[in-house]
Structures are given as structure tokens and as C-alpha cells.
Amino acid sequence: MEIEQLIHTYGDYLFRVAFIYTKDERAAEEVVQDVFMKFYQTSHRFDERSSLKTYLTKMTVNRSYDYLRSWKHRTFSLLEQLTGASRGADYRVLQKEERGEITKAVLKLPVKYREVLLLYYYEDLQVSEVAEFLRVPVSTVKTRLQRGREKLKQLLPKQQWEVLANDDSR
Predict the structure, then answer these.
(1) Which of 4, 107, 131, 140 has the fewest CB atoms within 10 Å distance of its CB?
(2) How confident is the model at residue 89 (pLDDT cuts 50, 70, 90)?
(3) Does residue 117 contact residue 147 with C-beta atoms inside 8 Å?
């Protein structure tokens, strides 16, 4: 598959994944660019044990973690706190989501809860698939889902919470 076709097919999706982790539009764009560049350079290593979408998603998650640990991110966050700058562009991205309010609440959660909720609800993965993807035990995923839901319950109005409540059918 050509790189242009990859970008067209997976670009928006990977941007949303990166944004969920970084909470910053510019950082998410940078992460996705890095992922596509890295994949282009090392595509011969892709051995097709998983789908290309899963492989690129995992690369995006890992690169997002790298960004969050980076000096650049910490400096920007500190500068933002000192100057009181706001991320108004973030809300434009969130408004495009069908479940904007839920997405906003999910973004307020710590990464370990955000990622399981994202994979379970947005990507429609089974608990066992989330566990495999994150390389953690199934019980850990279940615990994080439960705690993430509890935290969301505190952040969301009752009618939005009802959408997520009691959704353990998978």
C-alpha cells in the first residue's frame, strides 16, 4: 500500500487516537506524522501477525507515550500553566465526535483508564482483545474499565452516563 493511501485510510483515525492520549491537536498531528514516517522507513518489518490498522494504532499509542514523557511536552505544559494559555483548538476536534461530552470526560481521566475505555467503547474490542493489545492481564482490563466507568459517572450528566452503564456484554 502506498504511503498516500495509508494516510488517507488511517490518518484521521490515528489522529483521534493520538489526541486521546496527548490532549493537544498539534502534538497529535506530530505523533501521527512520526508514525507514518517510521512505518514508511521500517515497513519491511511488518510481518502481518495483526492487521495494519492494529499495528499503526499500537505505534501511535507508543509514540504518544513517548511524547508525554518528552522534555518538549513537559516544557509546553509548564509554559501553558504559567501563562494560562488555553487549548481552544481541542474543542473543535471534540465537537466533531458524535459523543463529544463523553469524549471530554474521557480526556479528563488518567491514561490507563482512557486507553481501555477508548479501545473498548470506541474501537469495539473485546476485553480479551484489549488485554492482548495492552499486554496486561484480562483482570487488569476489567478493573480499569470498572474504575474508569466510576470516574466517568462522576463527570457525566445522568442521561449520558446511562449509555455506558451496564455495558459488560462483550
Answers:
(1) 4
(2) low
(3) no
pLDDT reported for residue 25 = 87
Which are the contacts of 119, defined by CB distance < 8 A and separation ≥ 6?
125, 129, 130, 133, 134
pTM of the complete model? 0.52
Which class is 98-170 in CATH? mainly alpha
Of the options 1.10.10, 3.40.50, 1.10.1740, 1.10.3470, the CATH number for the domain spanning 1-96: 1.10.1740
State pLDDT tens for residues 118-129.
888 777 788 998
Spatial separation of the C-alpha atoms in residues 155 and 46, rounded to whole Å: 40
